[in-house]
Amino acid sequence: MTKIDAKILEKATAWLSPNFDSDTQTKIQQLIANDPKELTESFYTNLAFGTGGMRGVMGPGTNRINKYTLGKNTQGLSNYLKKIYPNEQLKVAIAYDCRHNSKSLAQTVANVFSANDIQVYLFSDLRTTPELSFAVKYLDCHTGIVLTASHNPPEYNGYKVYWSDGGQIVPPEDDEIIQEINQLDFAQIKFEAKDDLIHLVDTEVDEAFANASVANADFKVSGKDNLKIVFTSLHGTSITMIPDVLKKAGYTNVHIVEEQAKPDGDFPTVVSPNPEEPEALKMAMQLAEKVHADIVVGTDPDGDRLGIAVRNLEGEMMLLNGNQTMVVMTDFLLQQWKNNNKINGKQFIGSTIVSTPMMEKLGEAYNVECKIGLTGFKWIAKMIKDFPELEFIGGGEESFGFMTGDFVRDKDAVTATLLACEIAAQAKANGSSFFASLIDMYVAHGFYKEKLVSLVKKGMDGAAEIKQIMVDLRENPLTTIDGSKVIRIEDYQASTTTDMEHGTKTPISIPKSNVLIYYTADGTKIAARPSGTEPKIKFYFSVNLPLANKADFATVEKQLDAKIDRIVQEMKLN
């Protein structure tokens, strides 16, 4: 049997103390006796906050999601809140999704907050992440927590922290909270609930959120009765809200994938509950053919991201990528604002450094600023907070997230689903389609084609491999890509942009992050970054060509796809 490292054994043995319940102690003893590899994975590091909060495999240990790691987070956050709001009655909102243990972990988090004399507003059953973001502001809370691991596999769960503006925590609060957590010992967690401080939240917030979603995405378009919609919640939380919002907005022809409508943390009908994956929407696409639907919408388990499929020029159902959905939605919003004479130079749209450059082209076309931030929707929410003098129209990121207006401060598949249906209904009423609208944009602004390649590298060895890949890309940078010279490299960890032709460096002003972006002379953009929520390293490709007219769409698309394939092969990523 593999020998257990002394430091690992020391950390694990600490969990055999009376501070931990008997079930946890038994599991640790079994790992020590029978599974040194799993013991090492469970204790070799402390689970950390990434781009979407803290996510990890459930189980005992410091590198796992359990009542103690989440209890410690909550105790540290409680201490921090008391420090910065010393004379206020503190309030927190808590929601959770359909995952295994989400409800019990949410109750544990509520207990710890209440033990620290903080008023808790706990949703009585599962709710979407955007509703939690809304609830923080609606209930005038200081902070909010949602228990979710988004689209990760069933063995995962997670913990996302929201601030009083409804957005996820960002600097400086995030680092200060993490410091507070790291100072704690597990023995300092207060688990004894004060039940009178825990209040269950129900229909009042549901109704307010649904009404706000409709107010922000219902543009009173024609043709709603004529739009056939297929919707799947992929066994997740959005079934609690999206059908109701569509009904409130006047959509009567909605077909729900019943086999996937019941919330279930095993996600039994899909390999992964990720709307980015074509396989996840297979059942919805089959139903779409059966009922002759115009649009398919599928959402991830916590209801903040959406995948959309629409009929292409040949009438076939086609899954769009996040960049395509984002630019169509943003263009529609900009056009609505323009039609109502609301654009006056004091508005902006938002996106991220790994998303399509086409968002910036849209900003230029409508004379609206396009702000670009790091990966993760918390940075778009931060833009709204940092620039209160500007109105936020909408924005998104390539990973299937979009936000309309600022009543929610996180990606919001509920409101975005309604917005997508509004676009599809209006286009159909005008003799066009959602897909034709996208091609019109390519003709107007250039045909931008993107692709994501993710390499899965699990565990301690995988983390080391990902680290080495990023080191190699920095120390031995590519000089040409598909025959085109690399002219600029942005290194967000070093906070520098390097002009490769002149060797000059200029500073990058946005916060540091482990991201590297290459730009070539022919307009190609390649970004590399380790995922902040999964054991993956991600490569984002963007290539572009002019599109003279709709008739050339298929030909130019083949050229762009072939270019991406050549680059993937050249970088040995296939």
UniProtKB/TrEMBL annotation:
Pfam families according to UniProt: PGM_PMM_I, PGM_PMM_II, PGM_PMM_III
SUPFAM superfamilies: Phosphoglucomutase, C-terminal domain (SSF55957), Phosphoglucomutase, first 3 domains (SSF53738)
Record bears the keyword Glycoprotein: no
Keywords assigned by UniProt, alphabetized: Isomerase, Magnesium, Metal-binding, Phosphoprotein
Record-annotated Alpha-D-phosphohexomutase alpha/beta/alpha domain positions: 48-186, 209-309, 321-440
Transmembrane helix is among the record's keywords: no
Cofactors, names only: Mg(2+)
Family statement: Belongs to the phosphohexose mutase family.
Matches recorded under PANTHER family: PHOSPHOGLUCOMUTASE 2B-RELATED, PHOSPHOMANNOMUTASE 45A
Name this polypeptide is given: Phospho-sugar mutase
Record lineage: Bacteria, Pseudomonadati, Bacteroidota, Flavobacteriia, Flavobacteriales
